[in-house]
Design brief:
By secondary structure, the protein is of the alpha+beta class. It has six helices and 14 strands. The longest helix is centred in the last third of the chain and has 21 residues.
């Protein structure tokens, strides 16, 4: 009788595991989740075209030499290095593909890093599902925080997760994880005048990028950006009152873009009005 009960127990356990869908797999403890995902997370050390240095975050996903991050972290980069929690430093040779509207970028690492790649989950999480973020808030690298998926929203026509996870400058580009340690999104921005109102781009938008494209190095990318800006200026009309209106709108749009690219950095704005000049220095915490 004891032997029969033993066999019945193991048969029941096997059947339970066999029919349990992946989405119902047991959640990891925060400690196990952190240890599982940490090898795939990196701090990005970025030097921009002006020689300024700042940091962001990224996660190894889609391939053993592809890092996923936000576009505003590397949009003006002159050089980028990836630093892992075990101290390994890897040069980032360029940008494979990017989406400025959704603020996403795929970066090419100098070499492949087997057995580090994070898993992604293409299923939309439920509102109120537990979420985790790992990154470098204010330079405190490889920090983990948790919260909830507060809501799934359309922001400027783009799908985004609203999160209650605390996110600060330096977290940009870091992975948002579900309870199984799978990447469900990338941290992008946070509301500066609210508490724990942060946003992430879902992983569904990441897989739309073309991971098979050859990377463009930072020098080439800077040249392309300059040519594009010059081309846009040439497209503006050069007569009538509409010129002034469009030029002002273009200048303001360029200023907004610059602020988005400067999240986490200290900037100085000089205002000239009626012969007076005032300067304001502040750190861009979000935009």
């Amino acid at each position: 009788m004891t032997v029969k009960l033993h066999h019945v127990f193991w048969l029941g356990l096997w059947l339970t595991l066999a029919v349990t869908p992946a989405g119902l797999q047991a959640a990891l403890t925060p400690e196990r989740l952190y240890q599982k995902v940490l090898p795939s997370v990196m701090t990005l050390e970025v030097e921009n075209q002006s020689g300024e240095r700042f940091i962001g975050s990224a996660v190894l996903a889609l391939a053993d030499d592809v890092a996923v991050t936000t576009w505003h972290v590397v949009a003006d980069a002159r050089s980028v290095w990836a630093v892992f929690a075990d101290g390994q430093r890897v040069k980032v040779v360029g940008c494979i593909d990017h989406d400025p509207v959704r603020d996403l970028a795929l970066l090419k690492l100098e070499k492949q890093l087997p057995h580090r790649q994070a898993k992604v989950c293409l299923d939309l999480p439920r509102v109120a599902a537990r979420a985790y973020v790992i990154g470098s808030p204010k330079g405190y690298d490889f920090s983990i925080s948790d919260g909830l998926v507060s809501q799934i929203r359309s922001v400027d026509g783009c799908l985004q997760y609203q999160l209650s996870c605390p996110i600060s400058p330096g977290n940009s580009g870091g992975p948002i994880l579900n309870q199984r340690g799978e990447v469900i999104g990338i941290a992008t921005w946070t509301k500066s005048d609210a508490q724990n109102v942060s946003f992430a781009v879902p992983v569904q938008e990441i897989v739309r990028l073309n991971v098979a494209q050859p990377p463009v190095n930072w020098e080439q990318l800077a040249a392309v950006n300059q040519v594009t800006a010059a081309g846009l200026r040439q497209l503006l009309p050069v007569t009538d009152k509409v010129v002034e209106e469009k030029s002002e709108a273009g200048i303001f749009a360029a200023f907004q873009k610059r602020l988005r690219e400067s999240v986490g950095k200290s900037v100085t704005v000089v205002v000239q009005e009626e012969g007076r000049t005032n300067s304001f220095e502040f750190t861009v915490t979000s935009f």
